[in-house]
UniProtKB/TrEMBL annotation:
Enzyme class: hydrolase
GO BP of this protein: proteolysis
Known role: This protein specifically catalyzes the removal of signal peptides from prolipoproteins.
NCBIfam families, sorted: lspA
GO molecular-function terms, A-Z: aspartic-type endopeptidase activity
Family affiliation: Belongs to the peptidase A8 family.
GO cellular component: plasma membrane
Top-level taxonomic group: Bacteria
Catalytic activity: Release of signal peptides from bacterial membrane prolipoproteins. Hydrolyzes -Xaa-Yaa-Zaa-|-(S,diacylglyceryl)Cys-, in which Xaa is hydrophobic (preferably Leu), and Yaa (Ala or Ser) and Zaa (Gly or Ala) have small, neutral side chains
Protein name in UniProt: Lipoprotein signal peptidase
EC number(s) given by UniProt: 3.4.23.36
Record-linked InterPro entries: Peptidase_A8
C-alpha cells in the first residue's frame, strides 16, 4: 500500500510539472508574440507556416466570437469546469498513458483559461496554410489540448480494443 501511494504521489508531481511546463511555455510564447508582432500582421516562416497575432474572443475555431460579451464568462465557466474534471480524472486514473495525456490537456486548458480571465480573449498566433487551404489560427495551449485528447482517444479506442480482442 505504501508503494502504491508513493507511485501515486510521484505521478501526481510529474503531472503537475507537465501541466505547469505547458502553461509556462504557452504564456511565454503568447507574451512574446503579443510584444513583437503587430496585430493581424502575417510573418511568413515558410510556405506553410506563418505567425499572425489575433485575439480570439470565442471558443475553438472562433465559435461564439461574434457575440456581445456573454461568451467570455460562459467560456471561463466551461474552462474552469473542464479544469476541475481533468484534475479529478488525473487523481483517479490508473493508466499511465491516459494519466499523462490528461496532464498535457490540462496544461493547455489552464493556459487558455489564464488568457480569458486576464484579458477576456485568447491569444492565437500559429497559422498553418497550404495554397488555398487555411487552418484556424491557434496557439501552444490548443496544440497540447489536441495532443492530449488524441492520445486518450487512441488509447481508449484503438490500443485497448486491440489488446482486449
Amino acid at each position: 500500500m505504501i508503494y502504491k501511494n508513493l507511485i501515486f504521489k510521484n505521478n501526481l508531481y510529474i503531472s503537475i510539472l507537465i501541466a505547469f511546463f505547458i502553461i509556462i511555455i504557452d504564456q511565454i510564447t503568447k507574451n512574446y508574440v503579443e510584444n513583437h508582432i503587430q496585430y493581424n500582421h502575417i510573418l511568413n516562416i515558410s510556405n506553410i507556416l506563418s505567425i499572425t497575432l489575433i485575439y480570439n474572443y470565442g471558443a475553438a475555431f472562433s465559435i461564439l466570437s461574434d457575440q456581445n460579451g456573454w461568451q467570455i464568462w460562459f467560456l471561463i465557466i466551461i474552462s474552469s469546469i473542464a479544469t476541475l474534471i481533468f484534475l479529478i480524472l488525473i487523481n483517479i486514473e490508473k493508466n499511465n498513458i491516459k494519466y499523462y495525456a490528461l496532464s498535457i490537456s490540462l496544461g493547455g486548458i489552464i493556459g487558455n483559461l489564464i488568457d480569458r480571465m486576464r484579458q477576456g480573449y485568447v491569444i492565437d498566433f500559429i497559422f498553418v496554410h497550404y495554397k488555398d487551404l487555411y487552418l484556424p489560427i491557434f496557439n501552444v495551449a490548443d496544440i497540447c489540448i489536441s495532443i492530449g485528447i488524441t492520445i486518450i482517444i487512441i488509447n481508449d479506442y484503438i490500443i485497448n480494443k486491440t489488446f482486449k480482442n
